[in-house]
Design goal:
The chain is built from 12 helices and 23 strands. By secondary structure, it is of the alpha/beta class. Strands 6, 7, 8, 15, 16, 17, 18, 20 and 21 form a 9-stranded mixed beta sheet that branches. A 6-stranded mixed beta sheet has the order 10-2-1-14-23-22. Strands 3-9-5 form a 3-stranded antiparallel beta sheet. It is globular, with a radius of gyration of 21 Å.
Amino acid sequence: MKTDTIVLGAGIVGTCIALNLAQRGRSVVLVDRRGPGEETSYGNAGLVERASIYPVAFPRQLSALIDVALGRNPAANYHWNALPRLLPWMYAYWRSSAPDRILAYARSIETLLARSIEEHDRLARASAAQHFFREGGWLKLYRTEAGLANERREFPLARQYGLSAREIGVDEALDMEPSLRPVFRGAVIWSDPHSVSSPGGVTQAYAAQFGALGGQVRRGDARTLARLGSGWAVNTEEGSVEAPEVVVALGPWAMDVLRPFGVRLPLEVKRGYHMHYHAEGGASLSRPVLDEEGGYVITPMVGGIRLTTGVEFARRDAPKTPVQLDKTEVLARGLFPLGPRAEPEPWLGCRPAFPDMLPAIGRAPGQKGMWLAIGHQHLGFTLGPITGRLLAEMMSGEAPCADPAPFSPERF
């Protein structure tokens, strides 16, 4: 069949691009090997993280690097056999984590973050997905005074961008979340972010709305993408799909498709795990809670209390090594009355990331009719709708709602 646009990848980013294009009257086929929202977009902490003007930066202090190297930091793990390939990328990531570069990052990412909640709200209303969303921000807990002091350094920049961060004591934190145990010294409530009870459910609702507008979702292998004259073709279970334009929104698998076309970008993955737990004794949470020094988040989800881990540096397809989950589960049980695990196996996902921590949104270098929306790192769920709008505007020749220059794939 022929269509206007093929979108490869039915995660939150690809689904939002397809939906935004369909809202503009384009015929679109969304292609993935699985259903919408069943890969990376399923397994995150469910935050619309309006306040993430500071990135998940690489440690700068020697003591912090030593803790990671010796396995003493539960927020990080690595595979030795992956380091030879990853070290150049990690060095570039470390350089981008310098204070002056982080400020530049903040100026760029804020142009998207500022619209993240309103764009989710717009799509949620159109898709009848509002029931997944909740306000109330998220709570960051600190076990040491040093951790609190480090968090306070973010407050001036947060105020500069109109964000609300307030330091609170243990008693007030327990008033907000009575099921927590006082194993921390202080907390910060960030009021601006929203959260959801099922990021996969949200993605599926957006995909259903895309279908209601005439869009098609097909199962297929994105690696079959081929040039067809001046356009593109990809094979699906229902036959070949042809279009003059293609969008690659494949997250961790993007380079599998891009390399054969000579597109070289420094995209790597940061792996992470999650597990759902039953809560004991009627315990509950009303918002996501980050144990900053414990290296994990616990958040209420449809499937139970979800514990998500920090970062694992490893080959994308390497076997699971959920040592971080085992370490952080012990800490989380001390903070919250987690019951038994609700699943037989931990979930493993990959966060696609560039070393400058910004996504790539725009035309693919040297490839007519190919567009990219990849590398959203820890902000894929947050930025999916605004990415969809921005790219749809660029593809349609509209005035973009944000300056796309900082996110250009050609910056590499």
